[in-house]
Amino acid sequence: MDYISRKIASNLTHALSRGKSVLLLGARQTGKTTLIAQQIKPDISYSFARATTRQRYEQNPALLESELEEQIKGYTKPPVVFIDEVQKIPRIMDVAQSLIDQRLAQFILTGSSARKLKTGNDLNLLPGRVVSLMMTPLIYDEIPEPKPTLENMLVYGTLPGILLESEPGVKDTDLYSYVTTYLEEEIRAEAMVRNIGHFSRFLEIAAGESGKQLNFTRLSQDIGIAGTTIANYYQVLEDCLITLRIDPIDHSTTKRRLIKSPKYLFFDMGVRRACANEGTKLSQKMLADLFEQYVGTELVYHSQLSSPGVKIKYWRDSAGPEIDYVIDQAHAYIPVEVKWTDKPNLSDARHLKKFIDEYAAEQAYVICRTPYRYKLAENIMALPWQEIGTIFYPSKLKMPK
Questions:
Q1: 314 and 197 in one domain?
Q2: What pLDDT is attached to residue 201?
Q3: CA 368 to CA 394: how far, in whole Å?
Q4: pLDDT of res. 114
Q5: Do residues 268 and 354 share a domain?
Q6: Is the pLDDT assigned to residue 155 strictly greater than 90?
Q7: Which residue in 55, 79, 129, 390 could disulfide with 397, CB within 3.0 to 4.6 Å?
Q8: pLDDT confidence of 129, banded at 50, 70, 90?
Q9: Could you tell me if 110 and 84 are in contact, meaning their C-beta atoms sit under 8 angstroms apart?
C-alpha cells in the first residue's frame, strides 16, 4: 500500500524541533502509526496495541522507565521515544513526565481515545510538556491523484485504508467491520454500556442526526433511554474522537433569540453512513445534506492544522436565519454557507449579509460545487469546495475584482 504524506507531519516536526514532546490523538485507522513510522522515524518505539507489549508494562510501568533509562545511555542527544496507544496504560504518562523533566528524552504519544486520558484520580496529561495534535481522516489536499469524486467521498469517506482500496464492495465491508468491531464493541465497553441493543440503536440514530441541532428529549423517546444517558453516549463518542462537536454562537448584538444546542458531525462520512446503515445509492437531497457535513469536517480539520485557537461554530436564529458554519478566530468571525449548487446567487447569500451586518464580519463564503471562485457580493465569495483550505491562509486567496 502506498504511503500518503500528511500535512500534520510539519506541525509534529516543528514541535519536536522546539524540544517539545507530542500527544497525537486520532480515531482508529486515521494513520497515526504509519505517519510516525514513515515521516518521523523515532529512535525507540513501543506499541501497546500489541498484547504482549501491553501485558509487560500494565502491572509495572516503572519497568518501562528502567528500560528506557538504559537505552537512552546509547544516544548522544535525547532520543525520540514513540509509544503507540498510550491510553491503554495511562500511568505511562508519569514515566514520560519523569524522563521529559530530566531532559533525557522526547516523546511522541499516540492514542485513539482521549477518554481514558481524561478520567481517573491519578491522571497526568503532562501540562506544559506536550503539544497536543489531532490526526484526522485525509483532507482533500492530501488525497493523491487521481482524486475520487465528491460523491465517492460522501459515500465511502476518506480513511486512508478505505480510500486506497479500489473495490467498492471491499470498502463497504471494511466500513461495516469498523462499526461492528470498533464502535459497537470497544467504544460500548469504554462507555460501560450493558444494553447492546440500546447502544447500537443510539449509534444508528446519532449517525442519521449528524449535522442537526440535537433534541435530547426526542432522541430519548425514539431510543427508549434517558436523556442523560444519551448525553453521556455523545460525550463518549466525542472523547473517542468519533464525533466533532460544533457549538453555537450564543451571543447577539440585537434581540435575536439564538439556538444554543450543539451539533455533532461524524469524523468520517463513510463511517457515518455505515453507522446509519444506509446503502450506497443516495438521493440528491441526501448527497446535499452529506455535502454540508463533509464541508464542516474539512473546516474543522483545516482549523486544527492552522491554529489551536481557531474554532468552528454555527449560528442560528430561532426565527429561521441560519449560518451553517462560522470560523471563530478570537471572536473575529468568517461565516460560511454550504450549497449543493454549482451556480450560487445572491439569494444563497442572504443570511450571510445579515450576519455580516450584525457581527461586522469582513469576509464570508458560499462553499459549493462551482468550478471557479467568483464574487457574489461585497465581501462574499462563491468558493469551490476543493479550495476550503485557502480560507485559513487568506494571503493565498484574493477576492476577484
A1: no
A2: 87
A3: 18
A4: 79
A5: no
A6: yes
A7: 390
A8: confident
A9: yes
What confidence score (pLDDT) does residue 401 get? 39
Task: Judge if pTM exceeds 0.90.
Answer: yes
Q: Residues 131, 260: one domain? A: no
Q: Are residues 175 and 124 in the same domain?
A: no
Rounded to a whole number of angstroms, the distance between the first and last alpha carbons of the chain is: 45
The answer to whether residue 291 sits within a structural domain is no
Average pLDDT over residues 200-216: 90
Dist CA 47 CA 54 (whole Å): 8
Predicted pLDDT at 116:
73
Give tens-digit pLDDT for 263-299.
Answer: 999 999 999 999 999 989 999 999 999 999 999 999 9
Contact 211, 242 (CB under 8 A): no
pLDDT digits (tens, 9 = 90+) for 28-53: 999 999 999 999 999 999 999 999 99
Mean pLDDT of 340-345: 97
Q: Which of 78, 71, 65, 92 is nearest to 18 (CA)?
A: 78
Q: Which residues contact 311 (CB under 8 A, 6 or more apart)?
A: 247, 303, 327, 328
148 contacts 163 by C-beta, under 8 angstroms: yes
The contacts found for 114-119 with CB under 8 angstroms, 24 or more apart, are 114/25, 114/87, 114/239, 114/240, 114/241, 115/87, 115/190, 115/236, 115/239, 115/240, 116/87, 116/88, 116/90, 116/190, 117/86, 117/87, 117/90, 117/93, 118/239
- Confirm if 315 and 322 have CB atoms less than 8 A apart: yes
Q: What span, in angstroms and rounded, lies between the C-alpha atoms of 47 and 354? A: 52
Last residue of a domain, one of 135, 160, 178: 135
CA distances from 386 to 60, 338, 393 (A): 49, 13, 14
Residues 129 and 149 in one domain: no
307 part of a folded domain = yes
385 DSSP assignment: G
Grid cell, residue 203, equals: 449509534
- Domain span at 159: 140-285
In a domain, 234, yes or no: yes
Number of domains in the chain: 3
In a domain, residue 3? The reply is: no
